[in-house]
Amino acid sequence: MPKERLEEARPHARLVSTEEVVARIRKGVREAGSQVAFARLHGVHEGDLSNALRGHRPPTTSLMASVGARKAIVIEERAHG
Fold first, then answer.
1. Which of 5, 18, 31, 51 has its CA 20 to 30 Å from the CA of residue 65?
2. How confident is the model at residue 78 (pLDDT cuts 50, 70, 90)?
3. Domain extents for the chain?
4. Nearest C-alpha neighbor of 32 from the set 3, 61, 53, 59
């Protein structure tokens, strides 16, 4: 695939906080009508959903995927000198 077409096919990504992911999950729950409905719709565990919404645990990989998010590792290079 030519580089130009590859760039068009790749989704635009940006760095977001865990709080923003949880806010997107909350919006999805509202749109689905309930936590149970959201969990069933996206095939996620209700307990994981509840724990993330209450701030007891960070969103799981499947919860993040349900709102279009994924985990990333960032390395910050420090200037030497």
1. 5
2. confident
3. 16-66
4. 53
Instruction: Give CA–CA dist 30/24, Å, rounded.
Output: 10
Instruction: Round to whole Å and give the CA distance between 48 and 65.
Output: 13
Residue with tokens 């580089």: 3
The pTM of this model reads 0.78
Tokens in use for 81?
């000198």
Q: Count Cβ atoms within 10 A of the Cβ of residue 52 and give its class: 0-12 exposed, 13-18 middle, 19 or more buried.
A: buried
